[in-house]
Amino acid sequence: MTQNVVEVNVVKTAQLAPVLSGGEVERLLAETLQRELKGWSNQHMLVRVRGVLMNLTAQRRAAAMRQYSKLFSVQLEAEGTLTLNAPLKVLEPYEDGDVVEVVGYPVVNIYQGVVSVRLEVIQAHNPYAQEQPERRATHAQLAQLRSLKPRRNAFPLRPVVSVDVIHSASSTAQVDEDFYQGLGEQISRCRLNAYPVRITSAEDICAAIKASRADILVVIRGGGPDADFSVFNDKAVLEAFAQKKSYRVTGIGHSGHSTLMDLMADFAATVPAEAGAHIQSQLNHMAGLVEQYENSLEQSEYEISQLQQQIDVLANQSEITKQHLQENLKQIQPKSSFKNPWPYILIIILLVLLFLK
């Protein structure tokens, strides 16, 4: 009985419901969300999230232009992107690329009917404070590398290649000898040109890179203190290196040292000898390709020669057949009975004369 009453009430209610278009239904739902959820927050629902700050600098500029004391729409990359709102002072010590751990509570925002949840940050700290300077340096270096738009250059396909080698001018370095030994037997296919420089001088290295006109540009040095490798992250050096169209090889230090120049190079070796060995292997590979091409060319020439011989044989056979046909035609051609036309002409003249009489 109760169920029947409920069904009757539902039917009556449905009959009284207004008729709406699709757009009106969407607006009704948007207004309901706006009324029920906009500005919803729960300050007792605190959560802690660790991630990487992504667009902090841009949001600081926007807040400064509008004279806000708060940051909006800061992106935190934490296995997905989380949007943060935070007072300026809370995120003041941090920069883009910093790893932070934030504490905050969720806030619901609605814009044009779209619901989004943001985290209202009340506290932030860096769980890797000791590593932060190194992380910031790496972030800055990668940003600089992206700005240079580095490209990859192909190994030169030539039987003999020119190679410019930038190395330390110190007589005790010996890294150039290690590189030459790495070239091995392929050194005879290289026109080598040495550029000894102060390997700790960004200005000298940059000038040598700009002066190079070879097919292959090699920059090598041995190990040393970490501070000595900063020249290979220098902006002017990297810009000059990025503009070269030659095949670029580095052999800078040992495996413990990684520089932006290594990331830009077409091949980065850990030691000078490995840089030379790489060029040797490429030349060996190219020699194999040339030999394969020559063998293929010889095979093609042989096949063309065989086809030419077959064409000549067919041409001779065709000429002989043609001659036989001509002889046969001569033999079957009927002899003409009009070898001496004068008797026929005289008969025609006599007939004409008789007709005129």
TrEMBL record:
<dbReference type="Pfam" id="PF02601">
    <property type="entry name" value="Exonuc_VII_L"/>
</dbReference>
<feature type="coiled-coil region">
    <location>
        <begin position="290"/>
        <end position="317"/>
    </location>
</feature>
<protein>
    <recommendedName>
        <fullName>Exonuclease VII large subunit C-terminal domain-containing protein</fullName>
    </recommendedName>
</protein>
<dbReference type="InterPro" id="IPR020579">
    <property type="entry name" value="Exonuc_VII_lsu_C"/>
</dbReference>
<feature type="domain" description="Exonuclease VII large subunit C-terminal">
    <location>
        <begin position="169"/>
        <end position="332"/>
    </location>
</feature>
<keyword id="KW-1133">Transmembrane helix</keyword>
<keyword id="KW-0175">Coiled coil</keyword>
<dbReference type="InterPro" id="IPR003753">
    <property type="entry name" value="Exonuc_VII_L"/>
</dbReference>
<keyword id="KW-0812">Transmembrane</keyword>
<feature type="transmembrane region" description="Helical">
    <location>
        <begin position="341"/>
        <end position="356"/>
    </location>
</feature>
<keyword id="KW-0472">Membrane</keyword>
